[in-house]
Amino acid sequence: MFNTLKTSLFAAFALGCLAANAQAQGVTLKSPDGLTLNANLQLADGKTVADGVVLLTHGTLAHNKMEIIVSLQRLLAERDISSLAPTLSLGLDSRTGMYDCKVPATHKHSNAMVEIGLWLEYLKGQGVKNVVLAGHSRGGNQTAWFAAREDDAIVSKVVLIAPQTWTEEALAKGFEKTHKQTLAKAFAAAQAKVDSGKGAEFMKGVGVLYCPGADVTADSFISYYEKDDRMHTPNLLPMIAKPVLVIAGSEDKVVKGLIEAVEPMADGEKIQLVVIDEAGHFFLDFFAEDAADAIAEFIQ
Description:
This protein is an alpha/beta fold. It folds into two domains: 3-165 and 232-299, Rossmann fold (3-Layer(aba) Sandwich), CATH 3.40.50.1820; 168-225, no CATH class. It contains eight helices and ten strands. An eight-stranded mixed β-sheet has the order 1-2-4-3-5-6-9-10, with helices on both faces. A two-stranded antiparallel ribbon has the order 7-8. β3, α1 and β4 form a beta-alpha-beta unit.
């Protein structure tokens, strides 16, 4: 489905001209709707993109310069693994940094899967023959969703780092705590707009994700809060054709129930689970080293 998009992509520089010992390099491409998408390419010493790349997607409303992404790219490069880390546009041109909650939200959960596909096609255009898809938190869910839906021959493996879990009860409680209103009422209002063909209209001050009081279109709201079992990443694992590594932190307070859900599926081959003791959701400090070691062992 993405082959027709190749002509709309462009690089900010020619990868073939990079020196073998290049460090972090910025890359951009144009999406079909005209947005400039940004990514950071980190080549390992002595490697070119033809040697393979990890395509690493960040979490909710975040970006590719957050600590976990920067640390993993550096640590993977030290382990002879190159990586490309995009910043998801979230509907904004050339977006950098955390999403500004003052900007009315039009983005959708599914937009990430489209952009993962665009970057995958970009890598194909640069001669890459082997890509490992990876993602953290919500980006882990979006990566798993993409891998389950698009069994691309260029993708050899999938790495999910503290990927999103989901239950209706937890979603409702979290929404009420953050936005001081019931999810059922807000969802009903959004659904009414969508059903009447007004999904692109803004719901003023309703809030979405980590942005209380934000304006959000009904379409955007529905995409994040509708009942969909695929929002629970463990449900996607059996649908992925390629080997999958799930990395969990034993002290993760953000993603609940991940270890318990994945353990029964983990056979050590098709689905592998690595639990990093005492690590939280963002694998700070030395826990990033442990995560990078697990990824490197899985890949190499």
